[in-house]
Amino acid sequence: MIQDAIGGADRLESLGALFPQVLFESLGRTWPERPDGGLDILIVGVDAADPKDVEAAIRRLGAAQGARTVIVLRGADVATTRALMRAGAADVLPTPVSEPALAVSLERLLEAEPVSAAGGRRAGQVVALLKAGGGVGATALGVQMAIMLAGKGKGEVCFADLDLQFGAAGVHFDLNDAVTVSDCLGTGAETPFATALARHRSGARLLAAPREILPLEALNPGAVDGLLSGLRRDFALTLVDLPAVWTAWSNQVLQQADHIVLVTHLSVAHIHLVKRQLRFIASQRLEERPLTLVCNAASPEQLASVPLKVAEKGLGRAFDVVIPEDRKTMIAALNEGVELAAIRRGTPLEKAITELAGKVGAPALAAGSAR
Question: Number of C-alpha atoms within 13 angstroms, CB side, residue 61?
């Protein structure tokens, strides 16, 4: 379905000839406040010279209810384009928009459409791992969760390391020759992830970070669409490890994620970082997305210095899971590329991560079993 932002009936008829499998429909000149839930792609016009128009567009991008929105921007400028992309626009096309440019944009979005084997949308689920700051242990937690969940044998589990510059999941899984994100940039959703990705002994699959440091700009929202589409198709659950920075494409991951896990340490500085992250998440209209707040590696000394109740009062919300510090067991498991139980069974660390894995992974794997 399409809004009247690209021309009249002639343009719709022309697009219909290019994409015979797609139903194009004009919604007139008014952007609907709450688009129909059956809408797949919405194309709207926005005037960059009108601050109220831009503000309304940013507000309404969060209410698209699953429809990916292409903005046709009059008087386009870099700042407005970035603001719209950060707000969740699937693409921004400057006017006058040519038919080839629009066709390429639509083709990319249609190819990235996540479908299940039965023809339904959004087959598998995506859980995004977000860090309050660097070095909080989110990757280690994600790796252990993936191993635990894959070991249950209830559905396909993948760990996608999108930390382009400092990703270490390949080492933690002991899969140093695994297929990397950079290997898939040219193929996107066409990559046969189910067979191409390296398999850990637990059954978990790994899409590794690049072997060499890449600029963060090596990924973009379009590439992320393709990757997530293919991962949803092939796996019941994909844990996506993000860098400790915000980019247009990492925002796109969060916009598409079914669940967000925010990991922090217990310190005054980290509590302030968590508050900043939560405020920014709200500014991106993600506050209604399921979010699990994890306090990782909480030691007795930290708990004495910053009691949990004090930290939670400062945050205005409680931690969902508190992971106790057990540096020795965790490092041993990561160094050997094995699950925690292989090092030492029944530790408080293992129990806490099992609890976290159940919170974020059980619904996806239950759906995966049915699938």
Answer: 29
Using a pLDDT cut of 70, give the percent of the chain over it. 85
Report the pLDDT averaged over residues 3-18.
66
Quote the pLDDT of residue 114: 45
- pLDDT 10s digits, 269-278: 999 999 999 9
Alpha helices in 112-235 (DSSP H): 138-151, 169-173, 181-184, 193-196, 221-234
Burial class (CB in 10 A: 0-12, 13-18, 19+), 189: buried
CA atoms within 13 A of residue 43's CA, in its CB half-sphere = 23
Cα end-to-end distance, the chain, whole Å: 29
Q: Are strands 205-207 and 91-94 parallel, antiparallel or unpaired?
A: unpaired
Q: What is the largest CA-CA distance in the chain?
A: 70
If you write DSSP's letter for every residue of 314-341 in order, what string do you get? Answer: HHTS--SEEEEP-HHHHHHHHHHT--HH
Buried b / exposed e over 2-15, threshold 16 CB at 10 Å, is bbbbbbeeebbeeb
pLDDT in tens, 45-58: 889 999 888 888 88
Q: Residue 316 pLDDT > 70, yes or no?
A: yes
Half-sphere exposure of 327 (CA within 13 A, CB side): 4
- Whether cis (ω within 30° of 0) applies to the bond prior to 96 is yes
Q: Judge whether residue 27 has pLDDT over 60.
A: yes
